[in-house]
Amino acid sequence: MLMDDYVGNLIGKAKDSSDFRQVLETGEKMQVVIMSLNPHEEIGAEVHETNEQVLICVSGSGKTLVDNNEHSFERGDMMLVRAGQRHNFINGSEGQMKIITIYSPPNHADGIIHKTKAEAAAEEEAES
Questions:
Q1: Does 1 map to a domain?
Q2: CATH number of the domain residue 78 falls in
Q3: CA 37 distance to own-chain centroid
Q4: DSSP 105
Q5: Full-prediction pTM beyond 0.70?
Q6: Phi and psi at residue 99, in whole multiples of 5°?
């Protein structure tokens, strides 16, 4: 039996998306988001005081910076970012980097789509 929250081929959705951020599903305690970073684009350094994240690289390559520790980040890699850790993910490739991220608890409005990083930043600025 399929539930209303069924996403289907998550990796395929992440690879096919060119949106900077798209919230696919939001539960009471977690949220599934796909992201696409353009060549040499970065998420931007940030800290989530109450959220933890699991980020999985689906395609592309680059690096992560978590509390000033740098690691490579490429297809198949996963990074756990704990609440309170300063972090950034940077696309170091000439193609798009595709990322699946799971937030706990949810961090974004359900169903939100930000086509670009600038659109996401403008919305976050307006909310603060």
A1: no
A2: 2.60.120.10
A3: 9
A4: S
A5: yes
A6: -130, 140
Domain that holds residue 49: 10-127
What distance in Å separates the CA atoms of residue 25 and residue 105, rounded to the nearest whole number?
12
Pair 74, 57: CB distance under 8 Å: yes
| C-alpha closest to that of 20 among 108, 117, 103 | 117
Number of folded domains in the chain? 1
DSSP 44-69: --EE-SS-EEEEEEEE-EEEEEETTE
- Confirm whether 49 is domain-assigned: yes
DSSP type of residue 111? T
What gap in Å lies between CA 29 and CA 87, rounded to an integer? 21
Rounded distance between C-alpha atoms, residue 49 and residue 75, angstroms: 27
Q: Structure tokens of 104? A: 């706990």
Separation between Cα atoms, residue 89 and residue 99, nearest integer Å: 10
Find the range with the poorest average confidence among 29-38, 55-64, 115-124: 115-124
In the predicted structure, residue 4 carries a pLDDT above the cut 60:
yes
